[in-house]
Amino acid sequence: MSQNVYQTLEEVKLLPLYTATDLSYLPKVEEILVENHVPLIEVTFRSKLAGEAIKQLSASGKLLVGAGTVRTLEEVKIAIENGATFIVSPAVVPEVIEYCLEQEIPIFPGTATPTDIQQAASYGIKTVKFFPADIYGGLKAINALSGPFYDIKFLPTGGINEENFLEYIENPNVVGIGGSFILSEKVIMEDNGVKMNQILQSLVEKINK
Ligand code: 3PG
What we know:
The protein is an alpha/beta fold. It has ten helices and nine strands. It is globular, with a radius of gyration of 16 Å. The structure holds 3-phosphoglyceric acid. Residues 17, 69, 90, 131, 157-160, 178-181 line the site of 3-phosphoglyceric acid. Belongs to the KHG/KDPG aldolase family.
């Protein structure tokens, strides 16, 4: 997948956050995302299977596969070795950012305050994760932060759901939204992806209306 993650996010608006606990669901995960024209995924380092899941999902080249919840240098190395083409962190982690810049891999550091955003911006980063968006003031905060940080785009995550995601997406300072509500292994397990497919289809339809 050679397409740039910033461009894809700008077009698709959704970044599904996925935590793998059973690798047998990965083909279904890929199928659901491809079918709904959401060709990207953030696989979180919240399970031991993250590296292997990134590797397997990257194999077909149908998805842009990134790693999330990357908090250490060790994790960022495992992620990139296994084929991750972008990295998402819950915080500004200098060693993770520096390694990504060295490897020329897009990095979305997690920020919540002006100090965090300025720290990320000092590395030349133009798009930051805003996390946890709901707790740190949601769209009101994004609008306020966009005053001084007029050259920064936001990827809000945390507390975003079917009810509020459109409001976020419609904001010009928001490049796209991330969340675990977009794609869940637990929901896929219930009926081998039927319900999950319907949920994603309905999210995409709402965006394209
Ligand atoms: C993240 O790491 O981006 C968040 O934990 C996602 O939050 P959510 O589960 O509320 O979508």
